[in-house]
Design brief:
By secondary structure, the protein is mostly beta strands. The chain is built from no helices and eleven strands. A hairpin with an 8-residue loop joins strand 9 and strand 10. About 30% of the residues are buried.
Length: about 120
């Protein structure tokens, strides 16, 4: 599967952004999907993931209550709605999909930059 992320940009603290990830090349509903983020000089970190059906979701604690992950298996898209953004949310965000147990061996889109600054 190929993944294409979009929707990043510059937003003021307290603002919102919606990231999208378009999947192609395979049946998207076969894959668990998720979002990760990375800042310069640091490891890529988990943000949220969603089950194949879209029913189950998980979030890292700092984004709980502010971010919402969703998917549309008919449109082959993955989304991340980000509200109440903080400067510490600034990062390159990556979408990912996996068939197996670990993300490392999964599929990754190119990153999209999110900058939260006044």
């Amino acid at each position: 599967v190929q993944l294409q992320a979009s929707g990043g940009g510059l937003v003021q603290p307290g603002g919102s952004l919606r990231l999208s990830c378009a999947a192609s090349g395979d049946t998207f509903s076969r894959y668990e999907a998720g979002w990760f983020r990375q800042t310069p000089g640091k490891e890529r970190k988990f943000v949220a993931d969603i089950s194949r059906s879209g029913i189950g979701t998980h979030y890292v604690d700092p984004v709980k209550g502010r971010f919402a992950i969703s998917r549309d298996n008919l449109k082959n898209t993955l989304s991340l709605q980000m509200n109440s953004l903080k400067p510490e949310d600034t990062a390159v965000y990556y979408c990912a999909a996996k068939l197996g147990a670990d993300w490392i061996s999964g599929y990754w889109g190119q990153g999209t930059q999110v900058t939260v600054s006044s």
